[in-house]
Design a protein that fits this description.
- The structure holds two protein chains of two kinds.
- By secondary structure, chain A is an alpha/beta fold.
- Chain A contains 14 helices and eight strands.
- Chain A folds into two domains: 48 residues; 252 residues, 2-enoyl-CoA Hydratase, Chain A, domain 1, CATH 3.90.226.10.
- In chain A, α6 runs parallel beside α8.
- In chain A, 50% of the residues are buried.
- Chain B is an alpha/beta fold.
- In chain B, strands 3, 4, 5, 6, 7, 8, 9 and 10 form an eight-stranded mixed sheet that branches. In chain B, strands 1-2 form a two-stranded antiparallel ribbon.
- In chain B, a hairpin with a 2-residue loop joins β4 and β5.
- Chain B is globular.
- Classes of the chains: A alpha/beta, B alpha/beta.
- At the A-B interface, α7, α8, α9, α10 and α11 of A face α5, α6, α7, β9 and α8 of B.
- The structure holds zinc ion.
C-alpha cells in the first residue's frame, strides 16, 4: 500500500496492526487479536475522517495515487472481447493511449483512454499517460471507425496532460488535440466519458468533450496543474495548495459548474482502497449514461453535445 | 542609424524644446534597438522599418489598417458572468480585470468586427495580447461565437487573428471549456460553407493553439511568431536538452507542415483579399482596391489585386 503524505497517521496505525499480527503468527501464545482489531477500528475511523471533505490539493494527490485503478484495469474488468487497435497510420502507435473495439454489456463499443502504467517499466512505456500527437490521432481514427459503424464511444480520462516534448511539438501537438476535440463534437454516435483520475488540461479535453461526462468522486479536471498555476500566478510552485483551492478543479465543483454531469462515489479511502468496487461503480455509471443516449439519432446526439458546450459557463459557483 | 534619427529628430526636438519631448513619440525596436518615430511605426503597422521585426499591435489598430477606409463595425459580444469562480491568487481576479481594462481601454482580450477588405465583406476577430496576455476565458469564447454566428448569418468569411499565452487560469475549468466551445463556433462557419482563416500572431500558445487557432481552412502566420502548445522551458525541463534555434517560431512550424504561409503584416491585407476572394469564388480584386463599382465590367486585371499602401486612408 502506498500512503499519501496526509495519510501518514493512518500508515502508523495500520503498520502497528500489521506488526502485531505478524508477532501473533510468530508467537502462538500471544493473543494479539483483540488489540489488532482495536487498531483496525481506529484506522478505519481515521480513514473515514481523512476522506470526508478532502481539500482540493489532497484530491489531486488521491487522483494521482499510483494504486488507483487505471484505464487498463477498467478495460479488463468492464469490457469483453477487448481488441486493441493500434496506430495513427501516420507515424507511430502511442502507448499512452489505449483503444480499440470491445463489448460493454455485450454491445459493441469503441473504448479509448489514457493509461499511466502501474510500475516503472510500464510507466515509461506509457509515458506516464502523456500522449503525443499520435495518441490523439489514434483516438480520432477510432472515433471515425465508431462513427462509421454506428458504435458508441466510451473514453476514460487519466492524464497529467499532453506530452511537452520536442517531437510532439514538431508533429503538431496542438493541431492533434484540436482535431480530436473537433472529432468528439462531430461524431453521430453516443460519446460518454469518465474522468477516472487526472483530467489534465487540453490533453483531457481532447477525450472528454462528450455527451455525458462523469467524474470519480476524488478525480480532478483542470485547466492547469496546481503546481503550474502556482508557479505562474504565485511565482512559487510550493503554493500548489492555494492554487488547487482557487482553480475549482474537484468533481464537486465541476458538477456545480455544469461541466460534469455526474459524480461516481468512491469507496471509503478512495478508489485505490477497493479497486473492484470503484471499477464496478464506473461500469454502472457508464451504463447509466449510455443507455438513454442509444435512443437518440445522430443529429440529436451532435446537437446535444454542441448545445452543452455552447451553454457552458452560463452559471458560476454560488458565492 | 536611419534617416529618422538623423533628420527628423533634431527638428522634433526643436519643436518640443521648451517642454520635455514626450517619451511616447519614439519607440525603440525590441529587436534591433533602432529608435522609431511613432507615426512612422504606426503607419507601418508596428513593424520595424529598419529590421522588419513585428511588434505587438492592438486589435483596433489592426482593424484600422486592414479594413477598407479604416471603417469597421464592432460586433456586440455578450458579457459573461464576472469572476465565475471568485478566483483570487495574490490579487483578486476582478482587480486584475479592472487594471487590464484601464490599461487597454477594452472590455476583454478580443475585438470582433465586420467590414470590407478589398470590397469583400468579412467578419474578423482579433485577440489582444496586451489584455492579460490575450488569455482565453468566457469573454473570448463569447466573442468567437458572436463572430462565427455573424459570419454565418451574413454569409461572410471569418478571419481570426490569434495572440494568447493560453487559457485564462482565473476562470479555471470554464476557460478550458472554451476549447470545445470555440470549436463548435468554428464548425458552424465551416458547415455554412464559409472560409475560416486563422492568422497566428506572436505569441499563440497553449489551449488557444490547441483549439480554434489550429482549425483554420488556411493558417497564415506573421514572421517569427512564437506558436506552440507547451512552453519551451517546460519542454527543456522535460526532455533535458536544449531546443534548436527557431524552435516553435512561425518559420519552424511552416517547415514542419503546421502552417500554410508566413506573411509579413504589411502584406497581410492583400494576401487575405487574394485568398478570400478565391475561396468565395469572386473575381480578382480591382486594382486600387476602392469599393467595387456597381457593375465591374472591366477586364480582370492580370496581376494580383494590390493596393499601393499610400492609397490607403490612414487612421
Ligand atoms: Zn528593428
Amino acid at each position: 500500500m502506498h500512503y499519501l503524505e496526509f495519510e501518514k497517521p493512518l500508515a502508523e496505525i495500520e503498520g502497528k496492526a500489521e506488526e502485531l499480527r505478524a508477532m501473533g503468527v510468530a508467537n502462538e501464545e500471544m493473543d494479539v487479536d483483540k488489540e489488532a482489531r482495536a487498531l483496525d477500528k481506529k484506522a478505519s475511523e481515521l480513514l473515514r475522517e481523512l476522506y470526508t471533505d478532502l481539500t482540493p490539493w489532497r484530491k489531486c494527490l488521491v487522483a494521482r495515487h499510483p494504486d488507483r485503478p487505471h484505464c487498463k484495469d477498467y478495460i479488463e474488468a468492464l469490457f469483453t472481447e477487448y481488441t486493441p487497435l493500434a496506430g495513427d497510420r501516420n507515424f507511430a502507435d502511442d502507448h499512452a493511449v489505449m483503444g480499440g473495439l470491445a463489448r460493454f454489456n455485450d454491445e459493441p463499443v469503441v473504448v479509448i483512454g489514457q493509461e499511466k502504467g502501474s510500475d516503472t517499466k510500464s510507466r515509461i512505456e506509457r509515458n506516464f499517460g502523456m500522449a503525443r500527437p499520435e495518441g490523439y490521432r489514434k483516438a480520432i481514427r477510432l472515433m471515425d471507425l465508431a462513427d462509421r459503424f454506428n458504435i458508441p464511444v466510451i473514453t476514460l480520462v487519466d492524464t497529467p496532460g499532453a506530452y511537452p516534448g520536442k517531437g510532439a511539438e514538431e508533429r503538431g501537438q496542438s493541431e492533434a488535440i484540436a482535431r480530436s476535440t473537433e472529432k468528439c463534437l462531430k461524431i453521430g454516435v453516443p460519446l460518454v466519458s469518465v474522468v477516472i483520475g487526472e483530467g489534465g488540461s487540453g490533453g483531457a479535453v481532447a477525450f472528454a468533450t462528450a455527451n455525458k461526462l462523469a467524474m470519480l468522486e476524488h478525480s480532478v479536471y483542470s485547466v492547469i496543474s496546481p503546481e503550474g498555476c502556482a508557479s505562474i500566478l504565485w511565482k512559487d510552485a510550493e503554493k500548489m495548495r492555494e492554487a488547487a483551492e482557487a482553480l475549482r478543479l474537484t468533481a464537486q465543483d465541476l458538477k456545480e459548474l455544469g461541466v460534469a454531469d455526474r459524480i461516481i462515489r468512491e469507496p471509503v479511502g478512495g478508489a485505490q482502497r477497493d479497486r473492484e468496487a470503484a471499477i464496478e461503480a464506473v461500469g454502472k455509471a457508464i451504463a447509466g449514461m449510455l443507455d438513454p443516449l442509444r435512443k437518440k439519432d445522430r443529429d440529436a446526439l451532435i446537437k446535444q453535445r454542441r448545445d452543452k458546450f455552447l451553454k457552458l459557463g452560463a452559471r458560476g459557483l454560488a458565492a | 542609424m536611419n534617416w529618422i534619427t538623423n533628420y527628423v529628430r533634431p527638428r522634433i526636438n526643436s519643436i518640443f524644446s521648451r517642454r520635455e519631448v514626450p517619451e511616447n513619440l519614439w519607440s525603440k525596436c525590441d529587436e534591433c534597438g533602432t529608435m522609431l518615430f511613432h507615426r512612422e511605426l504606426r503607419d507601418n503597422q508596428n513593424v520595424c522599418t529598419n529590421c522588419g521585426h513585428h511588434m505587438a499591435i492592438t486589435p483596433r489598430e489592426r482593424f484600422a489598417a486592414m479594413f477598407d477606409g479604416s471603417v469597421f463595425n464592432e460586433i456586440d459580444v455578450p458579457e459573461p458572468i464576472h469572476d465565475p469562480l471568485q478566483f483570487r491568487d495574490q490579487k483578486k481576479y476582478p482587480d486584475r480585470m479592472k487594471a487590464a481594462q484601464k490599461k487597454t481601454g477594452e472590455r476583454d482580450a478580443m475585438l470582433v468586427a465586420e467590414g470590407e477588405i478589398g470590397a469583400l465583406p468579412i467578419v474578423a476577430a482579433a485577440q489582444d495580447f496586451s489584455f492579460m496576455g490575450g488569455s482565453m476565458g468566457m469573454y473570448v469564447g463569447n466573442a468567437i461565437i458572436a463572430g462565427a454566428e455573424r459570419a454565418v448569418a451574413t454569409g461572410k468569411p471569418f478571419v481570426l487573428f490569434s495572440a494568447a499565452g493560453g487559457a485564462r487560469m482565473q476562470e479555471g475549468i470554464l476557460s478550458l471549456m472554451q476549447m470545445p466551445r470555440t470549436t463548435v463556433a468554428v464548425e458552424m462557419v465551416k458547415e455554412a460553407g464559409l472560409p475560416y482563416v486563422v492568422v497566428l500572431t506572436h505569441p499563440t500558445t497553449g489551449g488557444v493553439t490547441a483549439s480554434y487557432a489550429m482549425l483554420g481552412d488556411v493558417h497564415i502566420s506573421e514572421p517569427n511568431a512564437l506558436i506552440g502548445f507547451a512552453g519551451a522551458r517546460v519542454i527543456e525541463q522535460t526532455i533535458r536538452e536544449k531546443l534548436p534555434e527557431g524552435f516553435q517560431r512561425a518559420e519552424y512550424l511552416l517547415d514542419h507542415g503546421m502552417l500554410d504561409r508566413v506573411t509579413p503584416r504589411t502584406e497581410m491585407r492583400e494576401e487575405l483579399i487574394t485568398i478570400l476572394r478565391m475561396l468565395m469564388n469572386q473575381p480578382p480584386a480591382i486594382k486600387g482596391n476602392l469599393p467595387a463599382p456597381e457593375a465591374p465590367e472591366a477586364a480582370p486585371v492580370a496581376e494580383a489585386a494590390v493596393t499601393a499602401p499610400e492609397a490607403e486612408p490612414k487612421p
